[in-house]
């Protein structure tokens, strides 16, 4: 989608190698998916690299130490009476490929596939009780995640000052939900087991992905918002359903030049606990408990969008940090994240 740049914004920089009829902030911050539609016959290809870190544990809105967890938090599975293995850190990086095509001016089709790498570090405590640490271990999983197919339906004219579109999407269960790894048990053994829920790569279910997006701009400023949800339709083959997800994001951008814009964003994220249980995931660790997976988070992001001199190419970057978290814990806290993206519309 091309939006004609206004005279005040052009005056920001007298000389530029970027075409003047394209704004860098015509797209939202790179973490916002499905943020714009295209004109009939247009394609867009995209690549995103996303990194997220998690470290330290939180129960509700308060931090909790590993020693507190193993001496106070009950084990859902009975014996030992309390949790005996505590995750201390997790990292995830994702490579995402996307394609958009507009068969009409009102409808843009979008597909996305992703490849994930996950690592989680743990402390194992010895025996049935107490705070005597036995050792540390790390588990890893990697592979393709779930596939997303969506239709973005314009609700206003593509060149209107205030632009709206709806998203009607589906997530297909192409990600694995039977990843295994070697662990260190409280008895000192090292069995290979099915990894807990956060280390799996997909949902195992067909999910609905509805959304509504608004965007506008005036002179050098741009702004927008998006509401989106993930609605699980049924249990997966292992007998459980991940919690539904809801998110609301808003952003404000400013053009530093006709080729470069800076943005700030705020996001609210809510995700539910797991319904049901995988009978092969049973261990004295919080990540194996379906009732300790939900929570809420507020997030701040700072981003850049840059139009390359080569026509049709743009780069984008956004860094995010949580501003508050309330978790059905104990759970690992979300830390900082970063997303880098390249987009090309020939």
Give an account of the 3D structure.
It is a single chain. With 346 residues, the chain is mainly β. The protein has one domain (7-344): Beta Barrel (Lipocalin), CATH 2.40.128. 3% of the residues lie in helices and 55% in strands. It contains two helices and 17 strands. The chain has helices at residues 7-10, 66-72; strands spanning 43-60, 62-64, 85-101, 107-125, 133-144, 147-154, 162-172, 180-182, 192-194, 207-218, 221-232, 240-241, 245-257, 260-271, 275-276, 295-307, 313-344. Strands 1-3-4-6-7-10-11-13-14-16-17 form an eleven-stranded antiparallel beta barrel. Strands 8-9 form a two-stranded antiparallel ribbon. Strand 1 and strand 2 form a beta hairpin. The chain is elongated, with a radius of gyration of 22 Å. It starts with 6 loop residues before the first helix and ends with a strand.
The arrangement of helices and strands along the chain is HEEHEEEEEEEEEEEEEEE
Shape: elongated
Overall tally of structural domains: 1
CATH uppermost class: Mainly Beta
The count of helical stretches stands at 2
What Rg is obtained from the alpha carbons, in whole angstroms?
A: 22 Å
Q: Describe the main β-sheet briefly.
A: 11 strands, antiparallel, barrel
CATH superfamily: Autotransporter beta-domain
On the 0 to 100 scale, the average pLDDT is 93
Percentage of residues in helical conformation: under 10%
Helical/strand content category:
mainly beta
Write the CATH architecture name. Answer: Beta Barrel
Number of strands: 17
Span from first to last CA?
A: 12 Å
Poorly predicted runs: 1-21
Beta-strand residue fraction? over 45%
Strand order across the largest sheet: 1-3-4-6-7-10-11-13-14-16-17
